[in-house]
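Reopening closed ticket. The problem is back. First fold of the pair:
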Amino acid sequence: MVKVIDAGFLTTIQDQPRLGLARYGLSEAGAMAPLSFLEANYLAGNNEPLPCLEVTMKPPRLLFQSAARVGLAGADFGWKLDNRQVPVGQTLEIRPGTTLQGDYCRSGLRGYIAFEGGLDVERWFGSAATHVQAKLGGAIIVRGDELRFKLNRNASLRVLREHAQTVMMNGSHKVLRVVDGPHLDMFPPESISLLTGTVYRVTEQSSRTALRLDGLALPCPKEPLLSAGAWYGAIQVPPSGIPQILGADHPATGGYPILATLIRSDFETLGQLRPREEIRFGRVSIETARQLYQRQHDWWKALG
């Protein structure tokens, strides 16, 4: 069992996305940095993704009251066990009475703490993922919580030497790759070129619901859009003309036209973007997007 001494800035239980409830108005939730979520589970000794902790910006302080095997992945929090720096990229064996803590993230934004056997939490409609906006699913962790996990000691200690993704850069800017959105034809012809040719800055108003940007206002459609389905990675253009990228806790529907869609293999980059970071968009074909995602899928299967 683990006791939460300090909950950090925003620590939630996350799991694989909860699919199939959009028709009831609930999006999928799940990990905002999905590759780090997989890496942490692998290092914890899990052969499938199991419920774990998603840590944002400032990590929790956890007191282990029983032995555990743990995997840490994602943002660099300078993790320590009893004030001793811990190695990254390998399974941690933690003894009872040990405290795990870290500092404000040095790079990236989100990290994951996975436990061998996964957190012992109830799954709701097939997933323990926390939908922060709706306050449904797993839990937002608070001080004093006691977290239980299943320890079986069946898995061998693991080391992760390679990551599934290298962030694409354009000079000093991270690049998010996109495919054309369903409402592209509603926009003036120059809108997509302006999107991919502009540097945008991530604002402090960003959350798991959407990444809010600051930068060039794009020309908007003249005709209004009836409410339509929305999804993780959709790039909406509201009347202000400033695009926003929907996250894992996005609304299930929306009335803003979707100019482009982030490719799935860049969700990890999206989830690790920090406020004030500058980004660019790169346009790719659907076939390229499929190939890039297949590589990530093959990487996970090869680990198992």
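Second fold of the pair, where the issue appears:
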Amino acid sequence: MAHFAGWGISRRIQPRGDTRRDQPGDDSKEKDTNMNRIARLPVLAALSAALLVSLTGCSQLEARMELNKGVAAFKAGKPEQAITHFQNATKLDPNLRTAKQYLATALSQNVIAGLTTPDNIKTANEAISGFQEVLKERPDDLNSLKGVASLYYNINEFQKSKEWQKKVLAVDPKDPEAAYSVGVVDWRLAHDNIVKLLPPGTQDDGAGNAKVLVKGLCSEVQAKNGSLVEEGLKYLGQAIENRPSYDEAMAYMNLTYRRKADVDCGNEPARKEDVAKSAEWLDKAMGTRKANEAKKDKGPGGIVMDSNGNMK
């Protein structure tokens, strides 16, 4: 044993040729193994992350390729192939919003308006779900909002369609088509009501049905159609205000004033005024439609070039 003066510390002198600090039976090898294992963990984690990024990148690239194939198929008039490609794209990259929207759009093309068979409704609901997936990320996406509204209309869910058109107007208050659509739904609901309420064998005369809408029946018509007619005229007027040449909206103003004549049953002066306004809007619709057709026939103004780049 060697001693260091003044330190009060002694140490064992190892025999020459033996440089180990620990005696046989210590756990130094196990410690070294554990340390090596721990040192490898960050490396393995980094490699795993790099592999994940690589795989993700490949999936995203494949998703884009499927998306492009879907667009090409859709343009070629092959909606079923397009749907398959868009579905593949959403599976490969669930975050690819464009694929979800294109898939919903392609599915909506297969929905037959007015058909309420289970298959048609199923397809419509699949398309609606696709648009709603887009809206989770972008609640103000107008194309998706309009898509849902249109699909509900096509499967005769008129009230829901109207609600979604109002969501469109909440994003874009100046949208004439959304306002027009609300007015159309209101007219349709009011029309369906009057057809059901008229006595069997009675034809709608389009002028207030004054001969049959008396007493209790008149009150029932007012209760069911009063608010629909009022709202319909409001939104159709809004559509025309934002698009003065909107002949379709004018045509529905004509039809809605006919339904207002029903609501004004028992008030002969008001009924006659409704019928007169209905005729006025019919004239406006026809005149505006002719003007619109004339503009189409005339074509664009200014310099017009043919397909070869020569002035016509």
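Update: turned out to be a display glitch only; the data is intact. Strands lie at 2-4, 9-11. Residues 173-295 form one domain. Please close again.
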